[in-house]
Design brief:
Layout lengths: L1 H16 L8 H10 L2 E14 L2 E13 L7 E6 L14 E8 L9 E3 L5 E3 L2 H10 L6
Parallel strand pairs: 3-5
Antiparallel strand pairs: 1-2, 1-4, 2-3, 4-5, 4-6
């Protein structure tokens, strides 16, 4: 119970600090880069909760750091949100998400967040950190 509460508090802190020019801790960014098959920037256009404990985000890609997604494409991915929904303030807001393929035995969608904390509000500092972590300059 304590670990779950700490995770919720950390997630709230990360989302609130990412609203300014702050970025997530470098160790968390490295973990996400390591585990993610696809890394992209874009906006969550809508979401739904097909079953308890799983929230599906409908995400419109604006830039791909890693993976084969192109600007304008939509990708659906599973995330695990408190209350099975995204807060309204995250919808239609520029974000960076770190995704990996889901196991074939899981129900759709075929993508999920790479870690419990894999969705961050976009800002220039995060963009620079991510470009550096991937070993290239942002284009």
């Amino acid at each position: 119970m304590v670990l779950r509460c700490a995770t919720v508090v950390l997630a709230a802190a990360l989302l609130s600090t990412a609203a300014g020019d702050d970025a997530p801790p470098e160790s968390l960014l490295r973990e996400n880069v390591h585990k993610a098959t696809a890394i992209m920037r874009g906006k969550i256009e809508s979401s739904d909760a097909p079953r308890p404990g799983v929230t599906v985000a409908h995400f419109r890609v604006s830039f791909s750091y890693r993976g084969s997604f192109k600007p304008g494409e939509e990708v659906d991915y599973a995330s695990f949100k408190e209350n099975d929904r995204y807060p309204d303030r995250l919808l239609h807001t520029e974000m960076v998400v770190f995704l990996r393929h889901r196991r074939a035995s899981y129900a759709p969608p075929k993508w999920e967040t790479a870690t419990d904390l894999s969705e961050f509000l976009f800002n220039p500092e995060l963009d620079a950190m991510l470009s550096s972590a991937l070993g290239r300059a942002h284009q």
